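Re: the 439-residue chain
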Amino acid sequence: MRLRQILTVVTAALIAVLVAGTVAATTVVNDVRLWRAPDYTRVVLDLSAPVEHNVIRLEDPQRIVIDIEDSRIGVDIGALDFSDSPVLRLRSGVKNKQDLRIVLDLSKAVKPSSFLLKANKMSGDRLVIDLYDESRRKPVLQYDNNNGRRDIVIAIDAGHGGEDPGASGPNRLREKKVVLAIARELHNLFKRETGYKSVLIRSGDYFVPLQKRRQLAKTAQADLMVSIHADAFSDSRVNGTSVYVLSTRGASSATAKFLASEANSSDLIGGVRLADKSDELVSILTDLAMTSSLDMSFQVGDKVIKSMGGVSRLHSKKVEQANFSVLRSPYIPSLLVETGFISNPAEAKKLNTKRYQRKMAKAIFSGVSQHFAANPPPDTLLAWQRKNRQQTVEYTIARGDTLSAIALRFQVSVAAIRSKNAMASSMVKIGQRIIIPAS
C-alpha cells in the first residue's frame, strides 16, 4: 500500500514536470508588425523561438489563415494600423487547445508567401508573411520628353527600410529614415531639372531586397543608380562622407570592407529566403558590360565626391571600392554614397536636419548633373541640346544654386553667363531666370 502511494506521488510529480515543460516550451508571439510596399504587404511576427506553421488561403470572404503550432499570442493586436493595405483586421484564437490561429480578413485577393527567419544580431526569430497584390501596376518603361528625345533616368535607392532599420545613432536615430529623406530631396531636384527623370527605388518605410533594388533600376531603364546610406562604425569618432563603386576583387580599404559587410547583411535582417539568393557575381564578372559600367561609375563618383567636399568633411578624397551587393549590376553604372556616419554624434545631429539633408542632396545632384552635362547619352535631350546649341538655354535659379555651379554644369564660364545677362555681380536669387549662352 505504501509502495502504491509512493508510485502515485512519483507519477503525479512526473506529470507535473512534463506539463510544466510543455508550458515552458510554448512559443510566444511577442510582437506583430505590418509594412506596406507598393506591390505587397508584409506581416511580421516576432517569436520567442522557432515554430512550425501553415498558411491557408480562403475565399468568400477573402482571408488568410496562419496556424502556428504550440504557440500563443503575447501582445495586444488591437492597435495595428492596416491603412493603405488589403488587410481589414487581424484576429487570433486557439486551435487544438495548444496551437495559435491567426486570421487576416482581407478587402481583396492576395497571393501569400511565408518563411521563417532565424535570430541574428539585430532581431530574434521571426515569421514573415508576404501578401502580394494580384493586380500589380505595370512599370512605365519609356521616358520621353516633349521633343521626342528621352530623358536621362536616375534611379535613387534609399538604403534599408521596413524591418531593416540600418545603422542607429543617438536618440534612436535610424539610418532608414535619414537616407529616405535625402533620397526624396534628390528626387525633387531631378524632377525640376529639364532632361532628367528620377525613380525612387524605395518611396516609403518598407523593405526591398538587394536583388530587387537592382531589378527595379533595370526595369526603369536607369542610366545611373545612386544608393544612399549613412552607416555606423564601432569608433564613434569616425566621420565624413564617401563614395563607393563595386570592387570585383578586394575592398580598397578596411573601412570599405566593413561597410560593405554591414550593407550586404540587409537581406538577412530585412527578410529574404536564402533559397532565393544566387551567386550572381560570378556571371556578372564574366560580362564585358561590367568594364564600361565600372568606368562610368568611377567618372560620376569622382564628380560627386568633389561636390560633396564642398558641404562636408570627406572620409576619403577618392572613390573607394568594395563588394556592395546593391551595386552588382553589369549594365547600370552604380554608386553608393555614404552621407556620413550616424554613429558620430555631431554628424548624426546634422544628418537629422532638413537643411543638411538638402545640402547633401544638392551636392549629389550637382556631381551627377556635371557628369551628364559633359557626357550625355547619345539618344537623350541633353545630347541633342549639346550638339545643336547655337544655342541658348533659359534656366530658372533653384534653392542652393550658385553661378559657378551652373557654369560648371553647362560647361560655360561665369563671365560668359554674366555678360549674356548683363549681370553686375555673380549673385543670383531663387526664381530668377537667366540665359545660358552657347558653350
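The longest strand covers residues 27-36.
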